[in-house]
Model the fold of this input.
Amino acid sequence: MSSSTGAAPPHHVAIVMDGNGRWATKRFLPRVAGHKQGVESLRRCVKACADRGVGVLTVFAFSSENWSRPAEEVSGLMELMVMALGREVPRLRDDGVRLHFVGAREGWTDKIARGIVQAEAATADNTRLVLNVCFNYGGRWDIAHAAQQLASRGESITEETLNRELALAHVPDPDLFIRTGGEQRLSNFLLWQSAYSELFFSHRLWPDFDEAALDEAIAAYQGRERRFGKTSDQLATSGTHTLRTA
Done:
């Protein structure tokens, strides 16, 4: 599906999938029920992104701070992760989606670790859409970990070398950063990579985020001018495309 504006869609979309717990609470359901519904919303979003020509989708599934949530909720999220790996990976493989899991590996159960390795291997040859799932991830951890890797090898720490060591070095930086649930903050997600991302905050809770909501975010992105420190006149003179970076 293409936009009526004719402008290119964002190549890389990043999403903070916020509001699962509040969605469940409003319906007098346990919070884990909201997370289960959130998986359904993610399935819709993956298909919609692929249909609209988005090349990379990166989602915040579980932050390094989420370990501090109630034990019952954390345990439910871990079980949901195992279930989702078993149920969703064959579908994603057949739909041309390549899976990457990004984040610290500490704290993962053996079952989750095995499932992630198998999921990445099963989808490694797919090229329609790259789906990065940030699990036990934090932006500050990402930067610190990259710096530690460089220091351990005695390499100098520069913007270029640090960028090569970050968890999303395999894809371009996000063009569009979406957060659902009505909150307007980054919450330690892709702090380095989102330096020039266009931000879009949706009032919809994540389980209610559908194709129409995605189209609204994409349309907002397509209507913005991306200058990257330059002026509009400079971009016009150089002929630089302002709505998307390569």
In short: Strands lie at 12-16, 56-63, 97-102, 129-137, 176-179, 198-201. The mean pLDDT is 89.
